[in-house]
């Protein structure tokens, strides 16, 4: 019982973890994976689980303090708000352990700044949690094509062409 009190009161390392921006990403990923698990076709009326129960995925949430493991019951109709994780590799995996590289390969990330889209699921959320220091994660409603991702990142040229010189010459000559 004493160890549980220590965990809920918060040690200095847990308070640092709470102030870290990755903590917010961890919470967001955990909530999305819970929504996906709750709204998945596995949770139908013929399953052995009671209706409305949520499964806590310990592999996803193992880094969270115990006081953050309490979950709210959600309505299955509103549970599927965003259906894809947009995962971008921000830091290189050179020199990291083989398992970390294997997780990145499984996610389909090879080069730095590469972006992939994966449906929200507990297994993908677990993979993201393994490499959360290397990637940036966003929840999106739909997959973008490679061309859309490229155009999104491409900067404006800094100028625009109002009219070509031939059209402008014809307008001035006729006027």
TrEMBL record:
Gene source species: Aspergillus piperis CBS 112811
InterPro entries: Ribo_uL30_ferredoxin-like_sf, Ribosomal_uL30_bac-type, Ribosomal_uL30_ferredoxin-like
Keywords: Mitochondrion, Ribonucleoprotein, Ribosomal protein
Bias-annotated ranges (Polar residues): 8-20, 41-50
GO annotation terms (biological process): translation
GO molecular function: structural constituent of ribosome
Similarity-based family: Belongs to the universal ribosomal protein uL30 family.
Functional note: Component of the mitochondrial ribosome (mitoribosome), a dedicated translation machinery responsible for the synthesis of mitochondrial genome-encoded proteins, including at least some of the essential transmembrane subunits of the mitochondrial respiratory chain. The mitoribosomes are attached to the mitochondrial inner membrane and translation products are cotranslationally integrated into the membrane.
One Gene Ontology cellular component annotation held by this UniProt entry: mitochondrion
Region Disordered: start-end pairs: 1-51
Protein name: Large ribosomal subunit protein uL30m
This protein's record includes keyword Oxidoreductase: no
